[in-house]
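User: Design a sequence. Structure:
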């Protein structure tokens, strides 16, 4: 039996002694690196993109890693943690949401020990002096503006889910952090696959120094795309290798396209045309082959095919809860008795801090029943503790079917074997819109567990009007461009001016990714302007005349042409007005001669039409008459037609009148024939002749002094006598058109450059007017504003300055502060919210009045809320629940009054606690507002709000 040598051993045998020695040296050097030590901590090998990124980090470069969801890009972030600890420096690991911070904190604490890892979120602090701290991005931004001592010794910052900077509400925070981090800090940016990673990397290289961009399109677990229609699961793409269309895209399954074609044709055939019973029977049989399967049927089918665990994305919280109930009613059981017992033990352990009286309010027992059967919902309306339990059980394989909203796709570590998409349309806050290729990729990226599954599966459910090509476009496209949402805010302005002065602050804002993208967008326009200017030079030479200034001569000609066109338009308008006035005077029974058009000749007016925009003196809503009167007439050829202005280029007058019988029916051929015959008879008797052609009036240009002056000046110009005058004129016209186009391009460039700085200048002007800034200095009021973060930072500062909250108790202050954070999920809430009475109600009214004053001030400074800058109107919808909870009322009473899910209630309470903490910091030392803000926080942080989650 012979020993088989590995490829490496055979390659080593073929090397020369010198090559073997060099390879040995290389291996020894690799084994001495921090990366080699780091690799030993993992049971699996690292992928090439992970190795490349880690090597760049160890070499001292920043990195941007763009890779699909589930590919393991967080390994690079964890290597930054490893490097920081090895070098005796700090590492901050930032995430966009608290749930992800909690999860990362738990992972790192297990790996490196709880004493080395801390957690900082808006309302929680755990081991804040640790060398490794997990935090939300907003916490780091606030640290940078405050000049926190915690930044001392900071070596690395990991920005997980950095593509979040596209978020229009919170994305600006990511750019603020990237711009303001000390240059000594190495930045590790982890992003989903984006189509402009190189552009983002170029910007990072500009503002942060040397940055390596590592892009990986490879999914460690292959993803199969399916469509579930009725009882059959179709592959979305053709299975045969290399099946692509002419454009290099994968071919859509022909069976699926055929089914969609048949179904769509059947949908559009009117039932009246379906014919015989045999046809109807065939249709019934065909229809039975395809339908949208129920949620319980989908889970049952996936279970039978071994495709669980699965996440079904439903873009509605109510839909997620309903799906669980439907599966329970259908009798689905995905867990054995042994696993049911495990589920109950874990749930009881994790929820034992919740008082018994609150369990019923929170829907605990229904939730537990679903968990024991292996079925659960996951959405933002759930209590955070409940969501965390669902995540834990899902990872342990004790929950196999989760119905979730798209928020689950934002980085939470819950990979599944399959992902199901019920629909490809979702509510985006304003309208129902198709999901984008980027969103599709993000959602289906959950399918396929590394190290567990050989392949992942994405299943789209059949719906009426299904288009396989559109789904294939979503599944096969990697167009998810990163677009900056950066906008200056009031808080940002005072913090920047306070640290750097106004001029330097302006320069810093010019380095934002938003401005970088805007500047890049004008590069192509600038090149076109450059080409145009070269063309203008050539045209100018060709139009040069040896007799004089041909440009001045052409200006005279253009002025003449412009004046003639102007007079011509005026004349046409006058003629149309005269014709319209004449039509308005017509009455039913008038006999007229239609002067032009297809129906020229004798006609009887049946209905005069409606004057433009008027009906009995009121604006007319019918667009049919928007262009003027449109009389309904009976022609001599027995046709009933509604005529328009085009048929009356000149005024028309009634030739005579005749009575229209009451029995006349315009839809009756006999009625039309009789009335037309009577009109012709009357015409023969009267002997009318067609009106003579409308005499053409003397042109207005003939008597216009300006035209006479221009014609005289043109004839007197030296260039008028040039033999090549018309050749020069053609070149001059080209020059003029190109000059006009170039000026338009230059205006576009001007509109896109310095946009951020211009907005910053407007904000500074408003803050100066209000006394927050004085030239290059921040006033005491400005320093107070610097401690207030959020959309309504300026409103909060003005309320503090004007003493709006001075006479309020803790619960009343909580009610007022809630208006600074809360935003109703309904776009138009017709029902006025319930408010506390007394001082709180007066203070809320005063807050709305102050906002109105600020809104008017913003308008005068051209600060536009539609562009994401400025103060939205305070929302009073959470004032009553906040007041009741801070006053000590029970959860059952508060939630039944609020008509709000427990998860939403907890989330808004936590945001309210955060803003009350800011108000406490910003209020004057020893003031009642500072004292009551702290008491309000204590009143809110109890029960479900206190025990809801780690962070």
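Assistant: Done.
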């Amino acid at each position: 039996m012979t020993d088989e040598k590995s490829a490496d051993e055979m390659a080593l045998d073929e090397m020369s002694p010198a090559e073997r020695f060099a390879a040995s040296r290389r291996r020894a050097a690799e084994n001495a690196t921090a990366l080699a030590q780091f690799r030993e901590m993992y049971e699996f090998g690292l992928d090439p993109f992970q190795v490349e990124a880690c090597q760049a980090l160890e070499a001292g470069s920043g990195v941007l890693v763009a890779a699909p969801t589930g590919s393991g890009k967080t390994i690079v972030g964890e290597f930054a943690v490893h490097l920081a600890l090895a070098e005796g420096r700090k590492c901050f690991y930032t995430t966009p949401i608290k749930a992800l911070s909690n999860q990362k904190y738990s992972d790192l604490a297990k790996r490196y020990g709880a004493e080395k890892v801390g957690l900082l979120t808006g309302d929680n602090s755990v081991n804040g002096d640790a060398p490794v701290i997990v935090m939300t991005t907003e916490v780091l931004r606030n640290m940078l503006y405050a000049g926190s001592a915690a930044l001392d010794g900071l070596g690395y910052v990991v920005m997980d889910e950095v593509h979040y900077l596209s978020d229009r509400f919170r994305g600006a925070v990511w750019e603020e952090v990237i711009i303001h981090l000390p240059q000594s800090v190495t930045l590790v940016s982890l992003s989903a696959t984006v189509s402009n990673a190189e552009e983002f990397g170029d910007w990072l290289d500009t503002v942060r120094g040397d940055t390596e961009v590592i892009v990986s399109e490879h999914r460690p677990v292959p993803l199969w795309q399916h469509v579930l229609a009725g009882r059959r699961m179709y592959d979305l793409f053709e299975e045969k290798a290399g099946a692509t269309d002419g454009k290099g895209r994968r071919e859509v399954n022909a069976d699926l396209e055929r089914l969609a074609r048949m179904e769509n044709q059947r949908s559009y055939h009117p039932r009246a045309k379906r014919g015989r019973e045999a046809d109807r029977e065939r249709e019934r049989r065909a229809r039975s082959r395809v339908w949208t399967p129920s949620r319980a049927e989908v889970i049952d089918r996936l279970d039978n095919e071994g495709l669980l665990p699965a996440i079904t994305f439903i873009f509605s919280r109510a839909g997620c809860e309903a799906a669980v109930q439907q599966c329970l009613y259908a009798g689905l059981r995905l867990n054995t008795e042994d696993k049911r017992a495990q589920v109950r033990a874990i749930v009881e352990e994790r929820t034992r801090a919740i008082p018994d009286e609150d369990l019923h309010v929170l829907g605990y027992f229904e939730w537990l029943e679903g968990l024991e059967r292996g079925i659960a919902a996951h959405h933002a309306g759930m209590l955070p503790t409940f969501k965390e339990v669902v995540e834990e059980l899902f990872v342990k394989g004790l929950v196999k079917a989760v119905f979730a909203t798209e928020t689950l796709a934002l980085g939470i570590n819950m990979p599944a074997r399959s992902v199901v998409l019920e629909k490809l349309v979702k509510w985006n806050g304003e309208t129902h819109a198709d999901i984008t290729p980027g969103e599709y990729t993000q959602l289906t990226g959950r399918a396929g567990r590394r190290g567990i599954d050989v392949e992942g599966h994405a299943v789209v459910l059949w719906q009426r009007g299904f288009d396989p090509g559109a789904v294939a476009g979503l599944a096969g496209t990697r167009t998810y461009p990163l677009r900056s949402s950066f906008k200056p805010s009031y808080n940002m302005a005072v913090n920047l001016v306070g640290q750097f002065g106004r001029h330097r602050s302006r320069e810093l804002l010019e380095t934002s990714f938003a401005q970088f993208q805007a500047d890049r967008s004008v590069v192509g326009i600038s090149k076109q302007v450059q080409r145009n200017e070269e063309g203008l030079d050539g045209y100018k030479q060709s139009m040069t005349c040896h007799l004089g200034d041909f440009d001045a001569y052409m200006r005279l000609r253009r002025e003449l042409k412009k004046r003639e066109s102007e007079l011509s338009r005026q004349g046409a308008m006058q003629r149309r007005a005269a014709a319209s006035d004449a039509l308005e005077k017509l009455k039913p029974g008038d006999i007229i001669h239609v002067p032009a058009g297809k129906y020229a000749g004798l006609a009887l007016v049946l209905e005069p039409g409606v004057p433009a925009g008027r009906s009995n003196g009121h604006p007319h809503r019918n667009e049919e008459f928007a262009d003027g009167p449109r009389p309904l007439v009976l022609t001599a050829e027995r046709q009933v037609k509604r005529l328009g202005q085009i048929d009356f280029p000149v005024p028309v007058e009634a030739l005579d009148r005749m009575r229209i019988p009451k029995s006349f029916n315009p839809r009756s051929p006999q009625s039309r024939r009789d009335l037309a015959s009577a009109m012709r008879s009357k015409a023969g008797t009267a002997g009318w002749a067609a009106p003579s052609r409308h005499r053409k009036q003397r042109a207005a240009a003939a008597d216009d002094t300006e035209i006479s002056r221009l014609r005289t000046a043109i004839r007197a110009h030296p260039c008028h006598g040039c033999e090549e005058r018309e050749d020069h004129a053609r070149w001059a016209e080209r020059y003029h058109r190109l000059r006009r186009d170039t000026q338009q391009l230059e205006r576009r460039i001007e509109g896109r450059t310095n946009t951020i700085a211009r907005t910053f200048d407007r904000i500074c002007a408003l803050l100066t007017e209000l006394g927050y800034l004085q030239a290059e200095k921040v006033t005491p009021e400005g320093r107070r504003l610097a401690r207030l973060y959020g959309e309504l930072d300026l409103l909060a500062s003005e309320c503090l300055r004007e003493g709006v909250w001075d006479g309020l108790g803790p619960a009343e202050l909580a009610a007022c502060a809630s208006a600074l954070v809360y935003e109703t999920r309904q776009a138009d809430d017709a029902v006025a919210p319930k408010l506390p009475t007394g001082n709180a109600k007066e203070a809320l009214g005063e807050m709305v009045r102050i906002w109105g004053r600020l809104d008017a001030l913003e308008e005068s400074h051209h600060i536009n809320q539609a562009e994401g800058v400025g103060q939205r109107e305070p929302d009073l919808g959470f004032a009553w629940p906040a007041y009741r909870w801070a006053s000590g009322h029970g959860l059952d009473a508060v939630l039944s009054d609020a008509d709000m899910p427990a998860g939403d209630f907890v989330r808004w309470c936590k945001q309210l606690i955060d803003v009350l903490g800011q108000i406490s910091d910003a209020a004057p030392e020893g003031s009642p507002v500072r004292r009551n803000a702290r008491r309000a926080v204590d009143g809110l942080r109890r029960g479900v709000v206190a025990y809801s989650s780690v962070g």
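The radius of gyration is 38 Å. The first strand starts at residue 62 and ends at 66.
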